[in-house]
Q: What sequence folds into this?
């Protein structure tokens, strides 16, 4: 019998390699230790302090012996595993486990406990390295059948004790022989998952903050002559008034050239001789690796790569892009780009314009992220034209590293950002994006427009997994997460203006007033189309003065039966018949004054050919130094934004004075729209979002039902998968599917084959009349409109007659595959489905049966596990939902029974990830109870759950 040390080594597990973001925003690479790491291990150990060595070995241990080096670098990757965290290829920390038996001696499986020990280089302690290593070594251990870790820690080693106790795992703690003995159960818990995600948020937010608020910037590739990408960025940095240090870098500079545009110029980052936080790379693609190495070797903390020529150019470009990311992360740097447009931060203590935008936006409360430089230019221009200010702007190009997920992590608790606008062409990790968007949307609006919706793939530069879930489903799931989904960049700006300048409406009741009856009626119709509850428009007539507008608006805002007000305005008609725009500034001031008296209700303006009014309202929203609007009653005061990194309060510039356009002291901002439909659509999105915000505090619960046999279902699934040799999975036979669903309280009515008229008669006799005769051929299944179903057959004679009609009309029995089923109470035919997508996760779908619903795409989706509130809303969200609630005098169906069915299916799929697809069709919902007449269940090995594993950066 072999001892554990004699066991053969296994293949190197490259799937254990991962890039992680550390607590301070830098990155490190975690990978298994190999036999080639002997010199790295010795060098690493020499840099560890004597105190840390003592804590690791419980005795003075100045150096590693040859035997130690061999033991710490030779692993079988099963019973003995070592992982290292590296930066620049060198070790900064290690962790190791050894499987042990109950006596604490080396062992092999089935022993399920291991002893674990860490060592972190002193210079990197406090960066969260050990916590990240613990997550990864725990995942490795679970994969190898280890369920518990044991660790001995000296009582004085408080940092290491804290790593274990803060991890969130179930643990036991004792004191033995002068050491603290810890036992950790490695099964993830709600607390360990919460700890992991909180650490992820802090680390990823910090990594973005390091990019947006650098203390110094080097433009690598700044040309010697004016013009060109690099020189343009250098000029934009200076013209924006960037508060940090700026350097120009160009390896082709003559030795006599010491400055460009008045800033110090160098031939390399190495020559600068001072710390550089951010490098903007604008050199040809073949020179980028050299520039990245120069930056990484001299401590640059992040990169904005403007250079194109990567994944957008095909397979070779994708290879170069992956290598770029690997190279940057090996130095602990994060990348925006490549093929990026740049980044902007308008904070007074930073004023960073590291982009190709010649005019930075005014300071404001909107955060804008785009994956397209062209769309970024259009959005910046549109927002600027309509007076909106930004807190920050990121155009990520190919988003090979920093993505929308990272930016959401930053904006989630950024005190300078109140509204998040995202233009996305691909979502690399939809499951994570949905989770982050839901959390962010709970505190501030998140508005998303998705490009490339119908192309079936991501844009060429975006090397991301492609989900099989249709766009409509992804869109529905985003709405479930509180995301405001719009279809165009114009709607993105429209919604952003309203959400940034006005409070959320308390409900759907809308007052309409203005000086045009026709425009008021158009607004009224638009409100009805969007599901709002408008009051009859109030016509002030074309003779209305700005004071008339102010009085009417004040009255509407004071009305408790009104949640929002839309003001419509057209030019005045003079006595000579010539149209006059009037004094737009005066009208704008009147509307602002009335709105300021009731700041808790939103006000929107719809204007026709009144550019002066729109300009006046835009001027009032162009900057943010004005005082914030008064909080709603009972709301906490807004927090003071912290001083920007690298600048003290004394160094920061004084706030700009309000513009001379009469910006009110409260800064209440009224958005203006050139069309009623655009204004009302933005208002409707705000109403729906406000309703979601009010409901998110009570998301519902996942009920516990009786009659659920989870162990029995697991055993049945395991048997079915073990008997099937197809790695793609197996579709259960009807009887097995009925048995599995029955274990979760989902009864399926039996269906008996009827290959001949006599077999049909015998089946009907066993089931009891009346019966239904149905074809199950694939081209006729679930298509009653094609005549393949005969219902209410009360006698054998009727059954035989129907059988003959089917076979004469549609084909031979062996083609039709007829079946007999007992009749059930009549009701509404519906369809319940659940499917698992590796990128999105498990999705529960519901709709009415029939071609009409399929053609209209009238299906509602919710993420699993669904709550009671989720399924109630899911049922009622269908356009055809009135058919379930007594439409045109029909009897309402048993929706509580339908909700319970949806929840049971959700629970089944959530408990058993091996169930990759369930289809219940049809489900006949009657006034009392329901009947599942058909069921299909497909099993397969469960897809990997990246959201439950250790933190890691994506690698596309």
A:
């Amino acid at each position: 019998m072999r001892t554990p040390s004699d066991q053969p080594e296994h293949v190197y597990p490259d799937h254990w390699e991962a890039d992680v973001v550390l607590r301070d925003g830098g990155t490190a690479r975690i990978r298994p230790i190999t036999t080639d790491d002997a010199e790295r291990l010795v060098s690493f150990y020499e840099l560890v302090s004597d105190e840390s060595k003592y804590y690791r070995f419980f005795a003075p241990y100045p150096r590693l012996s040859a035997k130690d080096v061999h033991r710490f670098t030779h692993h079988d990757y099963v019973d003995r595993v070592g992982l290292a965290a590296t930066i620049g290829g060198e070790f900064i920390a290690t962790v190791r486990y050894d499987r042990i038996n109950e006596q604490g001696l080396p062992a092999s499986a089935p022993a399920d406990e291991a002893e674990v020990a860490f060592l972190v280089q002193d210079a990197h302690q406090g960066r969260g390295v050990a916590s990240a290593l613990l997550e990864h070594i725990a995942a490795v251990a679970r994969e190898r059948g280890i369920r518990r870790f044991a660790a001995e820690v000296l009582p004085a080693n408080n940092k290491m004790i804290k790593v274990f106790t803060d991890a969130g795992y179930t643990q036991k703690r004792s004191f033995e022989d002068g050491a603290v003995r810890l036992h950790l159960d490695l099964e993830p818990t709600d607390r360990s998952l919460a700890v992991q995600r909180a650490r992820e948020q802090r680390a990823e937010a910090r990594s973005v903050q390091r990019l947006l608020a650098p203390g110094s910037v080097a433009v690598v590739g700044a040309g010697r002559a004016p013009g060109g990408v690099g020189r343009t960025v250098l000029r934009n940095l200076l013209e924006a008034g960037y508060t940090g240090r700026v350097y120009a870098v160009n390896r082709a500079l003559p030795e006599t050239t010491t400055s460009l545009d008045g800033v110090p110029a160098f031939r390399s980052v190495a020559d600068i001789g001072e710390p550089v936080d951010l490098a903007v790379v604008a050199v040809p693609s073949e020179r980028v690796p050299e520039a990245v190495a120069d930056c990484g070797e001299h401590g640059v903390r992040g990169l904005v790569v403007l250079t194109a020529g990567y994944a957008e150019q095909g397979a070779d470009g994708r290879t170069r892009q992956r290598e770029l990311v690997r190279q940057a992360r090996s130095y602990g740097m994060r990348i925006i780009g490549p093929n990026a447009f740049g980044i902007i931060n308008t904070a007074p203590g930073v004023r960073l314009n590291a982009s190709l935008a010649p005019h930075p936006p005014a300071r404001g409360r909107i955060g804008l992220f785009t994956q397209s430089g062209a769309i970024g230019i259009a959005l910046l221009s549109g927002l600027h034209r309509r007076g909106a200010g930004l807190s920050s702007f990121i155009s990520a190009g190919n988003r090979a590293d920093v993505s929308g997920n990272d930016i959401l992590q930053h904006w989630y608790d950024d005190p300078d950002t109140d509204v998040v606008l995202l233009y996305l062409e691909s979502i690399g990790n939809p499951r994570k994006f949905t989770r982050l968007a839901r959390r962010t949307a709970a505190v501030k609006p998140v508005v998303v427009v998705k490009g490339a919706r119908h192309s079936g793939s991501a844009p060429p530069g975006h090397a991301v997994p492609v989900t099989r879930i249709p766009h409509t489903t992804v869109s529905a799931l985003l709405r479930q997460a509180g995301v405001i989904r719009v279809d165009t960049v114009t709607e993105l700006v429209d919604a952003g203006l309203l959400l940034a300048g006005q409070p959320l409406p308390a409900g759907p009741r809308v007052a309409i007033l203005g000086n045009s009856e026709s425009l008021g009626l158009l607004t009224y119709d638009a409100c009805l189309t969007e599901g709002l509850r408008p009051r009859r428009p109030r016509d002030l007539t074309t003779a209305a003065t700005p004071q008339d507008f102010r009085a009417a608006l004040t009255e509407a805002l004071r009305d408790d039966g009104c949640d929002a007000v839309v003001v419509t305005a057209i030019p005045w008609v003079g006595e000579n018949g010539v149209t006059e725009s009037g004094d737009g500034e005066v009208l704008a001031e009147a509307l602002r004054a009335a709105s300021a008296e009731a700041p808790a209700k939103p006000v929107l303006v719809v204007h026709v050919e009144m550019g002066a009014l729109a300009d006046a309202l835009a001027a009032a929203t162009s900057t943010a130094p004005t005082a914030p609007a008064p909080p709603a009653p009972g709301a906490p005061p807004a927090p003071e934004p912290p001083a920007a990194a690298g600048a003290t309060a004394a160094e920061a510039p004084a706030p700009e004075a309000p513009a001379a356009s009469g910006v009110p002291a409260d800064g209440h901002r009224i958005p203006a729209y050139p069309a009623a439909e655009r204004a009302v659509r933005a208002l409707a999105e705000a109403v729906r979002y406000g309703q979601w915000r009010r409901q998110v505090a009570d998301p519902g619960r996942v009920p516990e039902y009786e009659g659920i046999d989870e162990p029995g279902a697991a055993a049945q699934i395991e048997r079915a998968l073990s008997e099937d040799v197809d790695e793609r999975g197996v579709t259960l036979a009807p009887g097995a599917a009925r048995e599995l669903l029955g274990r979760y309280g989902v009864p399926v009515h039996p269906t008996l084959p009827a290959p001949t008229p006599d077999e049909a008669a015998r089946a009907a006799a066993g089931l009891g009349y009346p019966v239904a005769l149905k074809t199950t051929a694939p081209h006729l299944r679930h298509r009653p409109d094609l005549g393949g179903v005969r219902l209410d057959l009360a006698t054998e004679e009727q059954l035989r007659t129907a059988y003959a009609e089917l076979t004469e009309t549609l084909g031979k029995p062996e083609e039709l595959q007829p079946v007999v089923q007992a009749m059930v109470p009549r009701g509404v035919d519906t369809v319940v489905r659940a499917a698992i997508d590796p990128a999105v996760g498990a999705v529960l779908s519901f709709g009415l049966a029939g071609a009409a619903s399929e053609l209209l795409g009238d299906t509602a989706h919710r993420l699993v596990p669904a709550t009671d509130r989720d399924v109630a809303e899911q049922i009622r969200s269908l356009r055809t939902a009135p058919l379930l609630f007594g439409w045109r005098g029909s009897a309402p169906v048993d929706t509580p029974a339908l909700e319970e069915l949806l929840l049971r299916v959700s629970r089944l799929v959530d408990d058993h990830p091996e169930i990759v697809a369930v289809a219940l069709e049809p489900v006949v919902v009657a006034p009392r109870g329901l009947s599942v007449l058909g069921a299909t269940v497909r099993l397969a090995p469960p897809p990997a759950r990246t959201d439950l594993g250790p933190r890691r950066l994506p690698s596309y």
